[in-house]
Amino acid sequence: MSICADYQELDGDVCISDDYSKPKLPKGALERISLADAGAHSEADEIVDTGEDGKVQKPKYKYMKFIPEAIKYSAIGHKFATTKPDKYTQIGREYNMCFKMLRSDSKLIKTVLSSYGYLQCSRRNNDVNLIWSNTHLSQSVLRTFLPWQRINHFPRSVGITKKDLLHQNLSLMCTKFPIGFDFFPKSYIFPDDKAILLAKVAGSTTMKPHISKPAASSRGRGISILNKPSELSAIICDERSKVLVSEYITNPLLVDRKKFDLRIYVAVMSFHPMIAYMFNDGLARFAVGEYTEEIGDWDDVSKHLTNYSLHKNNKDFIKNNDAADEDVGHKWTLSGLLRNLAASGHDTKLLMIRIEDIVVKTLLSIQSQVAAASRAAGLAPNSCFELFGFDILIDTDLKPWLLEVNLSPSLACDAPLDSVLKTKVICDTLNLAMVPLVYGKNSRNVSAGEEENINDDNDLASMVSASSGPTSRSTSPVSNASSAKKSRSFATTPFRRYTAGDVRPSGCVSSSTKIKTCASRMKCDRLRKGGFIRIFPRKNTYYMYKDIITETNVQNLDNLLYKEVNGVDPEVGDLADDMTFVHSELMSCDEYNSFDKLSPVTQQVLKEAYDEAEAYEAHKHLNGTKLYPRALPKLRPETRRRTLSCVATDEQRREQRITAFLAQKSVLAAVAKDPDYQFTQAAEIAQERKQNPYL
Ligand code: ADP
């Protein structure tokens, strides 16, 4: 879709009915019709309110649509920024769209949202449209959520994003479905399983290599490879700092004799029923050294670990400086890697189907937990969305192994390739999340703005002067929103905030309403998913995963969604029989190493997925260099709008960071002078950092 069409959708005259500001909750279901039916732009889709009698009423929400190109209009020095600087920012400003970041400082998120005129608020502001957080929010906070607000995590998704819980959940599934869940390396949680593993290796001086990872860590920190029983006993852990010890995969697939792993982006829009997407591109991250299994080599991180953060400062690390070259240096795109593997005769489409299967099974393993937590928090069906980073290792049989699932995949843009790919991922994720444009909350935010004083600037020098005197309402960006619209929203304030004890109406959403909402979302995703491929539900997925769904869930909403979308009951369909052999063939990668070798029924079940898998291999970033010649562009200062309290918080964090940096430097200097330096000071800093992750 062209930029123009995107913009028109937002600019359309059917956006929000006056009715919406009335403090009544919508009756009946949500359903999508094309705007052509509603007499509006033919290209766009809209979710509209339908009454109980089924009559289509006026549209309820308009939804933001993000495109990476919008950044150009806010970037310093870009020609669009001079000719049409407000083209995209005016959208968010008109509606006073607000966001806040919790335990995250992602430049990419701030850049995308600022390019659309979003106002960044401090963590205390609860009237924001979007929360981008690097941690989960508590149930009591989620209970106060309103239906138009969006948060980038589902409650309890920690069940797959923390290494020990992932192992626990997958092990449980493995006991129920031993054939389909053979994709996570055999693992033990220390200290709980320490005795079991030690008993296994007792009496011998050697053992199969294992890898130990702190359960709650990331970026390769605290990892070691162990090949002696004595090293197992030496692992330091306790109930509060558990360690995952996994069998080490000794036969990784190598490219140019180097080990690599894959970062796969997965967006989940609903857990119950499940609606999940996988991005058609990702990253392949290479180790810098050539892989060997020689004695004494196991400690060499440069050969055995593939974390970018560990290698980026290595003298041998080759950076990719051109987004159009997808297979150069130590970080490739997934599509660049797949083309390389396909050229060597591998069936890469089957590989991607297997990865999709791993993703769906992993998500289903926590479906019931997330569903229960969402119900308890009384969340509306569209409140949460989540972008996971799945880390996958491929072995020489082209079998994908799940290493871990990241709660907040890195959005750092160190190279043009990162910027191009991650901006697309974020824009498409936000599009799928369907962030509504709402007027009503402006009344609240304007008063929040009065308290906090809205500020335009983002450089530190201007912050100081700005904070010395309050910005008057007439000059604040919030106040610049159309006064006619504002007076309308001041008249009524429909968005009552609920306290933790209240039962919020959205918490009582019936299953049928939920199913209708999800079905309507799925129809809308045609224009919103961008590079994402819907991996669940699609044609035969209900049949494939039916046993897992029925085993783990009391209420089978996936079945109801299937009925709603396809108009038939899947339980009476042709493919309702046992699918164990499909899972068995998917797991047996050495035997079934190409699509032709799969049994005819398995081929039939996987046909749609196989055809769609073509998209993973396609060239995608040819134009990327034009958009990002280096990395993420710098925004014009006036584009990044923050409330004064947000500015104050940022400034406080910056000071803390500087203090910590100086303290660390003095410790290093002291150590350099005196090798016997006592690390009490360093320990204090570490403790402080633990308490304040922004340091
Ligand atoms: P972190 O969260 O610290 O990045 P990971 O689980 O992603 O931890 O592991 C870091 C790296 O270690 C991976 O990128 C991979 O190269 C390697 N690795 C992890 N687990 C295994 C394993 N079981 N077998 C072989 N290599 C592994």
UniProtKB/TrEMBL annotation:
Transmembrane segments: none annotated. Keywords: ATP-binding, Ligase, Nucleotide-binding. SUPFAM superfamilies: Glutathione synthetase ATP-binding domain-like. Residues 464-479 have a biased composition (Low complexity). It holds the Pfam family TTL. One of its GO terms (cellular component) is ciliary basal body. One of its GO terms (biological process) is reproductive behavior. InterPro entries: TTL/TTLL_fam. GO terms for molecular function: ATP binding; tubulin binding; tubulin-glutamic acid ligase activity. It catalyses: L-glutamyl-[protein] + L-glutamate + ATP = gamma-L-glutamyl-L-glutamyl-[protein] + ADP + phosphate + H(+). Belongs to the tubulin--tyrosine ligase family. This is Tubulin--tyrosine ligase-like protein 5. It comes from Panagrellus redivivus.
